[in-house]
Design goal:
There is one protein chain. By secondary structure, this protein is of the alpha+beta class. It has one domain: Frataxin/CyaY (Metal Transport, Frataxin, Chain A), CATH 3.30.920. The protein is built from 2 helices and 6 strands; from the N terminus they run αββββββα.
């Protein structure tokens, strides 16, 4: 693994770990978050899921929920921005969670 690959993997893993820590504060009756091998799976009470995973070859974090998908790349600022200009990972994920739970939420 090259140094740049290692740097990307460390950045992505830290992002996913921090998201899991935030999501672990939720009541398990609302959602559960599990992180393993670079994949963060969020399971909602209604049976739906949202999955974020590290894509090392593309150097991105991909997120899928329902029929929607996003690809995020790391910025020098530390933010993960959608490759199609739709926003930052944390705000997009907060919107997904908020819609699922029926209330406003921020990460």
């Amino acid at each position: 693994m090259t140094e740049s690959e290692h740097t990307f993997q460390s950045q992505a893993d830290e992002c996913l770990r921090s998201l899991q820590l935030r999501l672990d504060a939720f009541d398990p009756d609302e959602l559960e978050a599990d992180l393993a091998s670079g994949v963060l799976k969020i399971a909602f009470a209604d049976g739906r899921t949202c999955v974020l995973n590290r894509q090392s070859a593309a150097r991105q974090i991909w997120m899928a929920e329902g029929a929607s998908a996003w690809h995020f790349h790391p910025e020098p600022s530390g933010q993960w921005m959608d490759t199609k200009g739709r926003g930052e990972l944390r705000s997009i994920l907060a919107g997904v969670i908020g819609r699922r739970l029926g209330r406003s939420f921020s990460i």
